[in-house]
Every structure is written in C-alpha cells, then in structure tokens.
Design a protein that fits this description.
Length: about 170
Amino acid sequence: MTILRRENVARPLSRILALYCADTAPALRYSTLARPERRRTIFALAQLFALIAALLHVVIFVLESLIFTRPASYQRFGITSQQDAETIRPMAYNQGFYNLFLAIGIGIGIVLVHRDGDGRIAGLALVVFACASMCLAATVLITTGRRYLRAALTQGTAPLLALIFIALS
C-alpha cells in the first residue's frame, strides 16, 4: 500500500502549511502588521496564550483524573455528593486525559515551532489543531447549559486568542 506512506501524506500537507505560513494575507504585506519585528511579537503572544491554555488544561486534568473524588475538586464541577462523584469518576478520569493530551500537543507544537523546515510547520499544525479543539470543546460546553458559560469562557478564551494571534502573525 503506497497510498499511506509517509511521503504521500506528509509532503502535501507540508506544502499546504508552508504556503499558508509563507504568506497568509497578501493585504497585510504593506501594513504595519507585516513588519518582521511586529509579526514576531504577535507570534510570541500566540505562543504565550497557547501555553496558558495548555497549563489550564493540565490543571483540569489534575482535577478530573487525579483528585476528582475530593470534595474540593468534584464540587467545582457541580457535583454535590461523594456518591455522585464516585459514579461520575470513570467519565471524569477519561475526560481529564483528553485535556492532558491537548496540552501535550500544544507543548510539543511550541517546541517544534522553534525548529527549521518541516518541524516548524508540524509544530504550527499541532498548536492550531490543539487550540481549535479546545475552542470547539468550549463551544460544546456552552451548548450544554447556561450554567457552564463561565467554565466555557475560562476554557476557550486563551486558545481562541492564540488562534487569533497566529492568524495575525
């Protein structure tokens, strides 16, 4: 099966991302945002907000997967009894790992962004994917009820800002 070989998948994706990274917005070429030092600053802000999002998701991992059955932890999620916390624990444990994996994706992506060539492109793709996933998860959280609006804003603001700054850089 030559269809699923690395070069058949990775190279076209690398070319698409390279074209995107090379010149995402021709109209910005002559604006003040196009200055290299300004673009580096904006990209640094994108990385900062992505790291904040990753750290927040590590904290959520700890709350959901490691200490969920403690009253201080499960009460943050609106659970009122120890018995309910024990019932929900397997689901929370699983969900916590989803959050951890997204945070790891951002961490690896930011490390790769500081490499040359394909590593930079792969790193940017990882950061964008993880931040977009976090934003979409926050959107889903909003749809579950008004009482989750604060949690959704907490979970989704930093990755959204990271994506905005990536688009501007």
